[in-house]
C-alpha cells in the first residue's frame, strides 16, 4: 500500500516536471525503503504463520501413529522435549564448529 502511494506521488511530481536529479535520487531512495519495509512485513507474516505450524504433542502423536507407534499425550510431550534438547545441542555444536 505504501508503494502505491509512493508511485502516485512520484507520478505527480514527474508530471509537474518539478523534479531534479537530487529529488529523483531521494524518490528512488524512498522507493527502496518502502520495498524493504514491504519485504520485512511479508517475512514477519510468513514467520508468524510458520509459528502456528510448530510441532505440538498432538502432532507428535499423529506422526508416530502414522508410523505405527501409539503414545499418549504425556509421552508425546516427553518425546518433544527430548527432540528439542537434542536439536538445541546439535545447533550449538554446529555453530561452535564441533559437528
Highlighted features:
single chain; 99 residues; mainly alpha; 2 domains; 4 helices; 79% helix; elongated
The helix/strand series, from N terminus to C terminus, equals HHHH
Give the N-terminus to C-terminus distance in angstroms: 46 Å
Number of domains: 2
Q: Are there runs of 5+ residues with pLDDT below 50, and where?
A: none
Structure summary, number of beta strands: 0
Binned strand content: under 5%
- Biggest sheet layout: none
Mean pLDDT: 79
- Dominant shape: elongated
- Derived from helix and strand composition plus strand pairing, the structural class reads mainly alpha
User: What percent of the residues sit in helical stretches (DSSP H or I)?
Assistant: over 70%
SS summary, helix count:
4
Give Rg in angstroms. Answer: 25 Å
How would you characterize this protein structure?
With 99 residues, the chain is an all-alpha fold. The chain has two domains: 2-51; 57-95, no CATH class. Helices cover 79% and strands 0% of the residues. It is built from four helices and no strands. It has helices at residues 2-15, 21-51, 57-66, 73-95. Helix 1 runs antiparallel to helix 2. 2% of the residues are buried.
